[in-house]
Amino acid sequence: MPILHSIIHRIDKGNSETPAQLVPAATTLAASDALEDLVSGLNDAYHGKAKNWGRFNEDAPAAFPTELAAFLAGDSDFASLTQTLASRLMPLIDDNLPTGGHLLVVDHQQGETRHLFMALLHHRDGFAIDETLAVTPARQLNLTQMSLAARLDISQWQGSSTSHPYLSWARDRGRTKLAEAFAETLGAQEQRDAGQETRTLLKAFSDYVEKEDMAEEASRQKTDTLVDYATDQAKLGEPITLDQLSELIDEEHPQAFYDHIRNSDYGLSPEIPPDKKTLNQFKRFTGRAAGVSISFDSHLLGDSVEYDEASDRLIIKQVPTGLRDQLKQR
Q: How far is CA 292 from CA 16, 216, 271, 280, in A?
């Protein structure tokens, strides 16, 4: 995970009566193993948080995306960009949080994708053992406490016309006002497209089935479970709850599907609105003959799987990893 730019600004706030004060960093952070480990741990913690998903509001552009675009174009530096952002966050901290913290902003690369991650970090009291084997108090970063945190897929924002949300921000329970103010500061607009989110869920399920290398019957049963539950929720006018769906899909490992979604960062909220039309079109094609068993999701037809009716051939463009390895060994 190459870190391109990173910086930490301190925002001091002693108590609810004292206005927040910004102590800006003079320079960006030097690369280090500790910094990479910290960013990795924060990304993992962020995956598990409740989030809103959306895009920058193009109808009412805010200052931050304009300033970020200028930085990416080389017209400004990272320290100035993030210091201005920290200044805008101070009123939010004054109005919604009892204390300040350290604002970490990281511009980093993950594979071919570039991300901007930001989080207001807080400390907690802990313990350590010193060289004399004595217990001593220690201040530690609390990676799970991120009242203000956001993640932007820069690559999607800059280079794609997709309607998929590319920006997310933390949504702590009981802090709706803070989340809304944070989104306004970033210039973000929440986007909830039922069709798109349902398609993303089905894509996540297809990936999960392939990763687990499920047998045909097990795959069909889990598909029926997903569709039945989602259809029932649509009839009731209720959202699909991912942790509940995960329990239904695998009672022996109730967190497995939920963890797959969280760790792969599909951009799904814990609750998503079901789309009946998308669900009705979702099915699995299966067939068995002469020692050959084939099973795949209907939405793959015409994409990674093609059927040539004239020659009665099925063409698989993306061979599953496990099968490919077996073929190579053969």
A: 69, 12, 39, 28
Q: What CA–CA distance (Å, rounded) separates 49 from 44?
A: 9
**Number of separate domains in the chain:** 2
- What lies within 8 Å, CB to CB, of 323 at 6+ separation is none
Which among 8, 12, 9, 13 is positioned nearest to 29, based on CA atoms? 8
Please tell me whether residues 184 and 214 are part of one structural domain. Answer: no
pLDDT digits (tens, 9 = 90+) for 266-276: 878 787 878 88
Q: Residue with structure tokens 């079109």? A: 281
pLDDT tens sequence across 97-110: 888 899 999 999 98
Phi/psi for 235 (5° steps) reads -65, -35
Residue 300, phi then psi, degrees to nearest 5:
-80, -15
Contacts of 281 (CB under 8 A, 6+ apart): 298, 299
Among the candidates 190, 224, 255, a domain finishes at: 190
